[in-house]
Fold this protein.
Amino acid sequence: MSTEKNLPKQTGNTGSLQSLFAGVRTELGNRILGQQHLVDRLVIALLSDGHLLVEGAPGLAKTRAIKSLAELIDSQFHRVQFTPDLLPSDLTGTDVYQPQQGTFQFQKGPLFHNIILADEINRAPAKVQSALLEAMAERQITIGRTTHGLPELFMVMATQNPIEQEGTYPLPEAQLDRFLMHTQIGYPAIEVESRIMELARSEALQQLDRDLSGKNPGTACIGASQIHEARTEILNLYLSGSMQEYIVQLVLASRNPGGYDETLGKWIDYGASPRGSIGLERVARAHAWLSGRDFVSPDDVQAMVHDVLRHRIILSFSAEAEGISTDRVIDRLLELVPVP
């Protein structure tokens, strides 16, 4: 694998910004033991200005992860538990009549916070899901004839429980496409379990001490301006023409798999949309930036491609009948598409 020659060097305080976000990733890793993959994807989603769908069993620190991220940056956090009786106005807010003035006044809903946790998103009906996903795509909410803009820093992490499927409303593929990444997490390693117990006990004791003293510890925050500056640097990161072509070819191969392999053609019904190539380029840039490099390599693309394409490739009935997973299909795409 060859690296690019004569790469343009970044200037300014790039190193300090990278160190700052590396510190955020380290701190999250100290709080969320055994889920480094989730930690990395959270930071990359923040830097890529995208939204994250996380699938995993209960109790795997999904809520804790996004809440901890919100604590480490200058932001407002809100958690919404999705249930079958939830209404769109429970997310967006609604006009409330003020009898004293004889007018309606808009009361903002939870979506007007910076960091949103949509817990068990597939438990709410389609109208509620659509209200959330419209806000994710348009960064605004329309109530009646008035459009309300959402905060400039706006990120949604939605969770799905893969165990219980009764009473759920699975997201349509077109709505899944609004998420930048779909990350799957599992149980932590055995050797991490004891450390998790020790951490929980230590935090419980610290909370008791804070309750007695009435003091809340300060948290070092990253401001919105620093996040904006980091995103600008990432978008200006060097990406060669060959690397851009590699990303495009991976996405095109998902749409025309039969041209690469007959068996692969039988596994895929629909490939990734242009959002797939846009998202893959964006997160590959963020992955390279967090790794301390000033250019994107094939390793960055290959590290992120599963999370970006996992929810965008629709498998055929025969693939599901054979027990073929989307990750296996993506692995095959990586084998077939030439690496620059």
About this structure: The chain has two domains: 33-190, 237-336.
